[in-house]
Amino acid sequence: MFLSVIIAAGGIGSRMKLGGSKQMAPLAGKPVLAHALAIFAGLADVSEIVIAIGAEDAERCRTEILDKYGFNKVTAVVPGGERRADSVKNALAAVAPGAEVVAIHDGARPLFPAELLNEGLAEIRKDGMDGVIFAVPVTDTIKKADKGGIITGTLQRSRLWAAQTPQIFTLPMLAKAYNQPAEVLASATDDAQLVEQAGGRVKIIMGSEQNIKLTKPVDMLLAEEIIKMRLGS
């Protein structure tokens, strides 16, 4: 199986208050993006990696990450778009023509346990499955509210999952999903949503509580602690 990995690293991370890209921010001595790349770089199943990153960070990505850490499976660094879907679409155009399966991962999720990828690949090989995503069950009670903050309903959390990345899809279905109108792409919050809207069958499998997305300053502190725990220090 020819597996391509797309790393979406175009976010500026305004909520992190870093004054720049959160993917280039230091985490345990390395840029966040270097941690995300390391997840996939050493896996035999990964054939290539394509990075979508803001134009202002492209050169730093090459010199401070790719050259420094020797990520030779990276075949292309493409410009990120205004929205996440734009970044992924740009990266998809750079994927090798022979790719069969594409895994899309957020550059701001540096702690995905690499061993879980095999479980996702096993599911995508099953007949009739167009996509597989990792997720964890929602444990909080989820309320719906109107614009004034008045509760209008309570969702049944037993059937709710918090989606993570990587999200894995067959290339033909992913290409179909990203061939939808611009307004459809603009409204999507993850790749699975686009595949669902294109008629694809997507399965959820258990992710990891450690696979956090770095969104707020406290997330960086938590990520540091998870790394220390993994190193036994």
Q: Any descriptors?
A:
233 residues; alpha/beta; Spore Coat Polysaccharide Biosynthesis Protein SpsA, Chain A; 7-stranded mixed sheet; two-stranded antiparallel ribbon; 32% helix; 26% strand
Model description:
By secondary structure, the protein is of the alpha/beta class. The chain has a single domain (3-231), classed as Spore Coat Polysaccharide Biosynthesis Protein SpsA, Chain A. The protein is built from 8 helices and 11 strands. It has helices spanning 32-41, 58-69, 84-92, 117-124, 171-177, 182-187, 191-197, 217-231; strands at 3-9, 26-27, 30-31, 46-53, 74-79, 101-106, 131-137, 143-145, 151-154, 161-170, 202-206. The strands form 3 sheets. Strands 5-4-1-6-10-7-11 form a 7-stranded mixed β-sheet, sandwiched between helices. Strands 2-3 form a two-stranded antiparallel ribbon. A two-stranded antiparallel sheet has the order 8-9. Helix 5 packs across helix 7. The N and C termini lie far apart (37 Å). The relative contact order is 0.17.
Shape verdict: globular
Could you give the distance between the termini? Answer: 37 Å
Low-pLDDT regions: none
What's the β-strand tally?
11
Question: Which structural class best describes the helix and strand composition?
Answer: alpha/beta
Overall mean pLDDT: 93
Radius of gyration: 18 Å
